[in-house]
Amino acid sequence: MEWLNRMKDALDYMEHHMTEPMNMDEIAKTACSSTFHFQRMFNLLTGVTVAEYIRKRRLTLAAQELAMTPARVLDVALKYGYDSPEAFAKAFRKAHGITPSAAREPGAVLKAFPRLSFHLSLKGDKEMDYRIVHREAFTVVGKKMETSCREGENLRKIPLFWQECNSNGTSDKLIELGDGVNGLLGICAEMNHEQETLTYWIAVESGVPAPDGYSSTVIPAATWAVFNSVGPMPSAIQSVWARIFQEWFPGTGYEHSGGPEFELYPPGDPSSEDYRCEIWIPVMTKS
Length: 287
Known about the structure:
The protein is of the alpha+beta class. The protein has 9 helices and 9 strands. Strands 1, 2, 3, 4, 5, 6, 7, 8 and 9 form a 9-stranded antiparallel sheet that branches.
């Protein structure tokens, strides 16, 4: 499949440039993809961010070099992108549990993060219903937080953010601001590629100014692919997110257009087995 070859090309590019500076835009270009879409696809397919993968691979290769060659720690640190021995030693200890110098000792135990590979597997035996919707720009009002995409931190912190807003009255206030129309929105907005962070909003569509303590932003006009999620939160919707990037995108002629994504939560009991909500992803046809 075309998407499989694109991801393999991107992995080849990263592997061949482990000792050189890498630009996220160039990696995505190798996969014939937008930067945003490539990062989201990679993260949901592998469970790690692109930057995290590169970091772990470099520390794996650095450990092998220290264990098997007489190269100086400083030279190895610089080779794999660290500006100082101190920064390298800190990252190395976090990854391997020992110092770079200790890696040279006979019998030293090192951890290896192997190169990833993508293989075609038979999935998609369960249909995915979706619809395409065109919407003009609209304004939302709400609360926002910044979370890291590293090691699934966002998957842990976003549900906690929802719990906080539901328990302290924020969700009720937002519903009032939105006049009860549509429901609450969970928006994945700005993504910082270098810091591996994203800004997440709990908001409502609203034309009123943001009250004190709240913020507002504009969701740009877009063509959206809309998917239904049925089941208790957050496991049900996280499962749909995974299927979208693992099955739907690779199997269709669409790719992410790079704008904000959002989840739409209508009134109801989010813990019930029949709770229905939606995922909205901005898309465009592949060039």
